[in-house]
Design a protein that fits this description.
- It is a single chain.
- With 225 residues, the chain is an all-alpha fold.
- The protein contains 9 helices and no strands.
- It is globular, with a radius of gyration of 16 Å.
């Protein structure tokens, strides 16, 4: 917990809000419409409902914590700094759900993606939330679930057009441990991240994985209280 709060908190906050902790601004294009949720009360309600759904899923199955985080990271890593294509627009969710991969890791990703889609559906009667926002909120909630800092997430991201494919340059299991560090490094640099940002992202993922392996569901429930 202390490691996340002291070492990676500031860098991760920058990533989830779309800003860089380096001296230069982030170059990824994120289309935002802060007014899409209506008044502030509706916006807060939508955010809290999504966070509660993610928190409940993690409490029931702690090994989903690093998955929610990885999904948010992969959605952002889809951005290509050279072509300025892709970016955090929610396409990762549909790529996961449509995947024919039956490995245990992808199955976990499908559970996390389904949690986000189901949460969005349940909100339709009162308000709405974009898949892109839900992915980012899910990643920040995973950090908080293990005692990390409360990361502020700017909501209002617009989703990619329906049917838009996810980039073929980023494997869905890139952060599963089955790919070499050189592949992961290349993916981070491809999206314009600095070494410092890459280190913060991967260190937080490692912390989440260690926390998940070190706790059972009863411990997580006590921590949530």
């Amino acid at each position: 917990r202390a490691f996340i709060a002291r070492t990676t908190g500031a860098a991760l906050a920058g990533i989830f809000t779309g800003l860089s902790t380096a001296t230069k601004d982030a170059q990824a294009v994120v289309y935002l419409d802060p007014a899409m949720y209506g008044d502030q009360e509706n916006r807060i309600s939508a955010v809290f409902s999504l966070q509660e759904a993610v928190r409940r899923a993690i409490l029931q199955k702690p090994d989903l914590a690093p998955i929610f985080y990885s999904m948010a990271v992969l959605d952002s890593l889809s951005y290509d700094a050279k072509t300025t294509d892709f970016g955090p627009d929610g396409r990762i969710v549909f790529a996961i759900l449509e995947s024919t991969d039956t490995s245990p890791y992808i199955k976990l990703m499908k559970e996390a993606a389904s949690t986000i889609v189901d949460s969005k559906k349940s909100l339709k009667k009162l308000t709405s939330i974009t898949i892109a926002d839900a992915v980012a909120l899910g990643g920040s909630e995973a950090i908080q679930a293990v005692g990390g800092p409360n990361l502020s997430v700017q909501v209002g991201r617009t989703d990619a057009k329906q049917g838009s494919p996810f980039t073929k340059d980023i494997p869905l299991d890139l952060l599963s441990g089955s790919h070499s560090i050189l592949e992961v490094r290349a993916a981070c640099f491809r999206s314009g991240l600095t070494e410092r940002e890459m280190t913060a992202i991967l260190s937080a993922l490692l912390t989440l994985e260690l926390a998940e392996k070190d706790k059972d569901t009863k411990d997580w429930a006590r921590s949530a209280k």
